[in-house]
Amino acid sequence: MEKKDKLIGLAILEDTTDIREVLVEYFTRQEDVALIYAAYDAEDLFLNADFNLIQLVICDIGLPHINGVEACWLIKQKYPTIEVMMYTVFENDQYLFDALKAGAVGYMLKQDDLSQLGEAIREIARGGAVMGPQIARKVMEFFGQGRVHMPDVQSLSDQEKTVAQWVVLGRTTQEIVDEMNISAGLVKFHLRNMYQKLQVHNRQTFIKKFKK
Predict the structure, then answer these.
(1) Most buried one in 109, 169, 181, 203, CB count within 10 A?
(2) Under a CB-based contact definition with an 8 Å cutoff, are residues 72 and 96 in contact?
(3) Is 10 helix (H, G, I), strand (E, B) or coil?
(4) φ, ψ for residue 84 (rounded to 5)?
(5) In sequence order, which ranges of the chain are alpha helices (DSSP H)?
């Protein structure tokens, strides 16, 4: 598919078939959008989408294998000019801030209207950043109350916990890659996130805090 001038080259990353089909039907009807690809998981997107035509990705968080936050980080690493907007049922603070740290410039909830979603991608295409009203309130409350994120092992995602268990067993990054069958970049992403969440700076300190 060729991207026409001034159209927003859009990809959709959503594993729930019904939701993906609704999004495809809606954005196909938008005259200022060129729908490039709709993927059911991150591997499908990376294998089959033409990223040369994509300007923005709408990305679910609750994806199989590689979750949406991880997919966002991988997209930004490989294609830094492509913008990512999270589209999810999760209002969880940790998902929100992990997504922003991974490079997302938008965070909308699936309960938001499709028209709001359409306006959100247009705003991002114009160089802006977008959050739904509930999410914006969470961010304002977080900073307005001066909240400090306390180290908590439970804040780790399931895949981060798996990586952490291999780290505790003394595995190297390459050994974790081999054990989990994921990329070295993704392992490093998890390590960086885990260190930030537990407020540590090296493996030895991380292991001590994780085993508490």
Answers:
(1) 109
(2) no
(3) strand
(4) -125, 130
(5) 17-28, 42-48, 68-78, 93-102, 114-125, 133-144, 158-168, 173-180, 184-198, 203-210
Distance from C-alpha of 124 to C-alpha of 126, rounded to nearest angstrom: 5
Q: Quick count: other Cβ atoms within 10 Å of Cβ 178? A: 11
Where does 153-210 sit in CATH, by number?
1.10.10.10
Four-CA torsion 107, 112, 120, 116, nearest 10 degrees: -170
Helix axes 93-102, 68-78, angle to 10 degrees: 10
- pTM of the full structure: 0.69
Range list for CATH 1.10.10.10 in the chain: 153-210
Give residue 142's pLDDT band: very low, low, confident or very high (50, 70, 90). low
User: Which homologous superfamily does the CATH classification assign to the domain defined by 8-144?
Assistant: Response regulator (3.40.50.2300)
Percentage of residues in the chain having pLDDT higher than 70: 85
Length of the chain, in residues: 212
Domain with CATH 3.40.50.2300 in the chain: 8-144
Q: How many angstroms separate the CA atoms of 66 and 186, rounded?
A: 9
Any bridge partners for residue 188, and if so which? none
Tokens read off for 5: 């001038």
Give the best-scoring range by mean pLDDT among 110-114, 118-122, 204-208: 118-122
Q: 């306390």: which residue's tokens?
A: 150
Quick one: pLDDT at residue 9?
97
